[in-house]
Amino acid sequence: MAAEFASIVLAGGMGRRLGRDKLWVELGGENLPNMVMRTLSALGGPVILVLDRKKPVPALPPSVKVVTDLLPGRGSLGGIYTGLKLSDADRVLAVACDMPFLSIPLLRHLLKLSLDYDVVVPRPKGGLEPLHAVYGRGCLNPMKRLLATPSNRIFDFYHEVRVHYVGDEVVDKLSPGEMSFFNINTPADLEQAQRLVTDRA
């Protein structure tokens, strides 16, 4: 019997702007991907780490399943497709491995809404957050068709499925300051995250 949902952590980026692989970044004395997975584990359901290729990874909880892209070189779209395809779950909550301040209330809200949609994605003032969204198994074929084209834009298949957009009011209530979407792309982002972790301690 399929699990109700799984969480997938996308760790396929090279971290070029950061200058190192994000898998090995530490934040507040904790490995960044483990920090993300610890938050996701609080939701229940299995956790899957999706890599772009086979490579060394930090020590992970034994319950975490590690998979590699079925279609290498297709970016985050390929990673979401891989996680959904290889999961036993009806739907997956997909987040990037460099989002240390995920909001449990917001994630739970997305999962609750996803019972009635193929995609549930936040759309705050800054635009769509497709790497902080829920995807159902009804997305697999549209994703596969899109992956057969040159496009890597995740939202290019949205018109083929049932999508619910979560707007500003809900996002602001459940993740003040949109901190759930904060990600670490540059050394400046990492410095800011270190300060935030220190302030929260």
Walkthrough of the structure:
With 201 residues, the chain is α/β, with parallel strands linked by helices. The protein has one domain: Spore Coat Polysaccharide Biosynthesis Protein SpsA, Chain A (Alpha-Beta Complex), CATH 3.90.550.10. The protein is built from six helices and nine strands; from the N terminus they run βββαββαβαββαβαα. It has a seven-stranded mixed sheet with strand order 5-4-1-6-8-7-9, sandwiched between helices. Strand 2 and strand 3 form a beta hairpin. Helix 2 runs antiparallel to helix 4. The longest helix is centred in the C-terminal third of the chain and has 14 residues. It starts with 5 loop residues before the first strand and ends with a helix. The relative contact order is 0.18.
Number of domains: 1
User: CATH superfamily assignment?
Assistant: Spore Coat Polysaccharide Biosynthesis Protein SpsA, Chain A
CATH topology: Spore Coat Polysaccharide Biosynthesis Protein SpsA, Chain A
Largest sheet: 7 strands, mixed
Q: What coarse outline follows from CA principal-axis ratios? A: globular
Unreliably modeled segments? none
- CATH architectural label: Alpha-Beta Complex
Question: In CATH, what is the class?
Answer: Alpha Beta
**What spatial order of strands do you see in the largest sheet?**
5-4-1-6-8-7-9
Proportion in helices: 25-40%
Number of strands: 9
The helix-strand sequence is EEEHEEHEHEEHEHH
Overall structural class, as computed from helix and strand content, comes to alpha/beta
Q: Which percent band covers the strand fraction?
A: 15-25%
Discrete helix count: 6
User: Compute the gyration radius: what is it?
Assistant: 16 Å
